[in-house]
Design brief:
Strand content: 5-15%
Helix content: over 70%
Radius of gyration: 50 Å
Structural class: alpha+beta
Number of strands: 9
Shape: rod-shaped
Order of helices and strands: HHHHHEHHEEEEHEHEEE
Length: about 475
């Protein structure tokens, strides 16, 4: 907004100054006409008429020049407004895209959070069901053992404790399966050792039961031996049934645990792939946005450099590093070099714009066989029109001018010159000129060539390039 107000004030001042200069020239022209009329009173009417006609022709030329300047100024103002509107639209579009992307990322995170919560709730329900089923199995086994307590109560209790130990070990084996991959080998070894111990204890218990059976069957004809043998058979059947039930429980637990591990691994793999995909998309979008912003920054720098004018080989009175004194001397030197007819316009342009001394101060240099103190001077104009007017005035005065490239763009300009040389336009045969220009308000770079041999002729375009990013890593 400040730049727009400054530009409008500058345009108003330029318009007012142009009109004032036109009025002064018209006043001087009219005075010359009146002077000619007074000096030619004794002459013929034809002389008077021709003097009046020349006066009106001079006035007409002054008015045409002022109107032409106004038209150029209005055209430049319209282009500048159009460029600012386009930049504003691009900025709004970028902000909308960024808001949409942030909303999409937030929705994906919320969806992932809900899925994880549902998965945790499902795991908790499955664990509660397993614990309930285990309690019911234990209660059923205890009920069967209580119903079978008719004879040999002590041995049944011993068997009950053994079976409880076996069930506890089986539970430990099944609980050991809850880890996913990290403790799989260790749990497998523990399971094998515990199964081996359980089998050995079961064999030992069967051996004791067989010994008791032999001892009991040794007393033939006794009712106690028959009851003991019957009790042993019942105990053996119960032990076998409990072992079979424990084996079934263990196999079911292993299958359920393997299925859970498989589902968990699939979910983790899917989550990893989705996270990698989102990270890749986010990285690509960030790189694209970073490159676009870097290109925009370079375009702004090139656009600013198009309004600058670099003056070389200006002669200073002495070597100095005081830039204040050098700037005063530069303004006087430039005013003295331009023609008399352009001096007033040059003073106006210098008064409105800024002049800079490039480098630390003056340096000694040989120009046209003369050793002088010089320093490059940069004139930053307010518009392209002022820059072109100042350039025409200085070139007519024989001042050496050059284009001031941004430092970040110098390597790219060297690459363009190298490509032009590879196209066959060698620097020992052709003048190569690389300059910026605007296409639909966007700065571009253009390479032009002209043969060194012979005089005259114009530059021919051989290629165009878009502005690169400021960051060389993004080229």
């Amino acid at each position: 907004m400040a730049g727009r107000l400054r530009s409008s004030r500058m345009n108003e001042s330029v318009l007012e100054e142009g009109l004032m200069r036109g009025m002064i020239e018209m006043d001087e022209g009219m005075k010359r006409v009146l002077k000619n009329i007074e000096s030619s009173r004794d002459g013929s009417q034809g002389v008077v008429k021709s003097s009046v006609m020349r006066g009106f022709e001079g006035m007409t030329m002054v008015l045409e020049k002022a109107v032409k300047g106004l038209g150029e100024r209005f055209s430049e103002e319209a282009k500048r407004k159009e460029r600012q509107e386009r930049e504003l639209e691009e900025r709004i579009k970028w902000l909308e895209e960024r808001v949409c992307m942030q909303r999409r990322v937030r929705m994906d995170k919320e969806r992932e959070r809900e899925e994880r919560v549902q998965e945790l709730e499902q795991r908790m329900d499955e664990r509660h069901k397993e614990e309930r089923w285990r309690e019911e199995s234990m209660q059923a086994l205890e009920q069967k053992i209580k119903e079978g307590e008719e004879g040999g109560k002590e041995k049944v209790e011993a068997l009950h404790t053994k079976v409880t130990e076996l069930v506890g070990r089986v539970d430990l084996l099944t609980k050991g399966k809850e880890s996913v991959k990290e403790r799989e080998e260790q749990q497998e070894e523990e399971r094998r050792e515990k199964e081996k111990m359980a089998v050995e204890k079961m064999k030992e218990l069967e051996g004791r039961l067989k010994g008791w059976e032999i001892a009991v069957t040794g007393s033939k004809g006794s009712t106690e031996g028959e009851e003991g043998g019957r009790h042993i058979g019942e105990m053996r059947q119960r032990i076998e049934e409990m072992e079979r039930m424990a084996q079934e429980v263990r196999s079911e637990k292993e299958c359920a645990m393997e299925e859970k591990v498989r589902i968990l691994e699939e979910g983790l793999e899917k989550e990893k792939k989705d996270r990698e995909r989102l990270e890749k998309e986010r990285k690509e979008d960030f790189c694209k946005r970073e490159r676009l912003e870097s290109i925009k920054e370079m375009e702004r720098k090139v656009s600013d450099s198009m309004d600058t004018l670099k003056i070389l080989n200006l002669k200073f009175r002495k070597a100095s590093n005081e830039k204040g004194d050098l700037l005063k001397e530069v303004e006087g030197t430039i005013k003295g070099k331009v023609g008399v007819q352009d001096r007033s316009e040059c003073e106006c342009i210098l008064r409105r714009n800024k002049v800079y001394i490039l480098g630390k101060g003056t340096g000694e240099k040989i120009v046209n066989g003369e050793r002088i103190f010089t320093a490059p001077v940069l004139l930053k104009c307010g518009s392209q029109i002022e820059k072109e007017r100042m350039e025409r005035m200085l070139r007519r005065a024989g001042v050496h001018l050059a284009f001031h490239w941004p430092k970040d763009l110098m390597d790219f300009v060297y690459d363009i010159r190298r490509k032009v040389d590879q196209l066959g336009y060698r620097k020992d045969e052709y003048h190569v000129k690389v300059r910026p220009f605007k296409l639909d308000g966007v700065p571009q770079l253009r390479a032009e060539v002209k043969k060194i041999v012979g005089r005259g002729g114009s530059f021919e375009r051989v290629g165009c390039w878009s502005c690169p990013p400021v960051d060389r890593r993004l080229w």
